[in-house]
Design brief:
Low-confidence stretches: none
CATH topology of the largest domain: Rossmann fold
Strand order of the largest sheet: 2-1-5-3-4
Number of strands: 12
Helix content: 10-25%
CATH architecture of the largest domain: 3-Layer(aba) Sandwich
Order of helices and strands: EEHEEEEHEHEHEHEHEEH
Distance between the termini: 67 Å
Shape: elongated
Number of helices: 7
Mean pLDDT: 94
Length: 255
């Protein structure tokens, strides 16, 4: 008699993870993956198209696994997305050392999101503003060293081992991207609108009108009285006609 050993790994994908798969794996959420080589579960999932930043849990029966786990043929694993809400930044088996502050590093491919995050009051660095745009590995290392969460639409960037916390931004509209990030990380109660400079990310401070008169246009001098100034680049802000539009944009996510 001959016995047939199952040389496949059975993966069950939860949430929207199946949407991130390469085309050849996108038939359904139950996948039989051939184990033709010895590889970690991180490498297997990323070979299938899912960056490790999008994975919130890897479970074998009741056991929680880390990214270095080496699957055996015939095993059945459940793969879960990063949970929405504050739990996304809580310590876990996959990410035991979460960032102590909510700070973002925004890739060039979602550059307009950086301005909206600053408008909402989040500490945000934009790669578009870098004098020399770094390569993927340098960006990944920058994220690790600074403790910033990478936001990008580049899967290959998010696959770098140095990246612990990041998000493959799903939507293309900048406003929808803002809502996506705020809801993913449960940040509605963290909003501090109009506390940061949209140009450089510096903190804004209230300033007397007389101290910024030389930076104002004639009509602004005539009709506005309250001003804020960036402590880093000296950009001046006031509640002009654009202010109501920004309030309307933020209203859906304000706690």
């Amino acid at each position: 008699m001959s016995s047939c050993k199952d040389e496949h790994l059975q993966l069950t994908l939860h949430g929207d993870l199946a949407d991130l798969l390469l085309r050849q794996y996108r038939q359904n959420t139950e996948i039989r993956y051939p184990l033709s080589r010895r590889a970690s579960i991180k490498d297997i999932l990323e070979a299938m198209g899912i960056p490790h930043t999008e994975i919130g849990g890897i479970q074998k029966a009741a056991q929680q696994l880390d990214f270095s786990y080496l699957p055996e043929p015939g095993e059945k694993l459940n793969i879960y997305p990063v949970p929405a809400g504050p739990a996304a930044l809580q310590p876990s088996v996959l990410r035991p050392d979460p960032p102590t502050e909510i700070r973002f590093l925004v890739d060039i491919n979602v550059a307009r999101l950086a301005v909206l995050l600053r408008m909402a009051g989040f500490d945000t660095v934009s790669l578009r503003e870098e004098e020399n745009v770094p390569g993927k590995r340098e960006v990944a290392q920058q994220s690790r060293c600074s403790g910033r969460i990478i936001l990008s639409r580049d899967k290959e960037l998010l696959k770098h081992r140095e990246v612990a916390f990041g998000r493959l931004v799903r939507t293309q509209d900048p406003t929808a991207q803002l809502y996506e990030i705020v809801d993913l990380y449960g940040l509605r109660s963290n909003l501090e609108p109009f506390s940061r400079c949209l140009r450089c990310n510096g903190l804004l401070i209230a300033v007397h009108k007389q101290r910024v008169m030389d930076q104002l246009e004639p009509l602004t001098k005539k009709y506005y009285y309250n001003f804020m100034k960036c402590g880093s680049c000296s950009q001046v802000y006031w509640k002009g006609s654009h202010h109501e539009k920004m309030i309307a944009l933020l209203k859906p996510i304000m706690a």
